[in-house]
Amino acid sequence: DAKTTQPTSMDCAEGRAANLPCNHSTISGNEYVYWYRQIHSQGPQYIIHGLKNNETNEMASLIITEDRKSSTLILPHATLRDTAVYYCIVLDTGRRALTFGSGTRLQVQP
Amino acid sequence: DSGVTQTPKHLITATGQRVTLRCSPRSGDLSVYWYQQSLDQGLQFLIQYYNGEERAKGNILERFSAQQFPDLHSELNLSSLELGDSALYFCASSVRADQETQYFGPGTRLLVL
Fold it and tell me: What is the distance between the alpha carbons of residues A73 and A36, in angstroms, rounded to a whole number?
């Protein structure tokens, strides 16, 4: 699976959009970009995933660049409950296990 | 609530002992994954089962073993426990065996004294 690079930590004001970047410059054509988050010591929570096109669901939006070498997770209106570690994971078709890196620790400030 | 349940929530035991962690996947999910999260190693994949059969292995120690039963629940057995086995153990499930969104349980916190 392609390696990902994320900032170690970020701050965001409550109510503002949180934009979390991820670099995956060695991504190949059949690899998906997944985002999970972990709030404190709870089980990781699936957020969103995509291959080429931008995706949106009730939790977030995923913007993938045209060359697919980077992506941005957008939480449109961050709340205090969005404070968590966010993991960007690149996953090959047929690969089963998630490989978690260090992630980005997002702190939403009141 | 992901729909994945894990028991027990907490477990305290001594070195050399053996414990069993249990996981019930979401209704309809055939695949179960086990992950270990320790302070120094982060979240690491241990093993995957699909419909009762082992599908993939990660960094699972020989002292650890798992199985998935006909009702699809899974158990992770940890034996000859060492202090370094203290960690959070998560179970996740998915519908299929490959590249499918995984839903995680709340975890079992194991403390080996």
Answer: 10
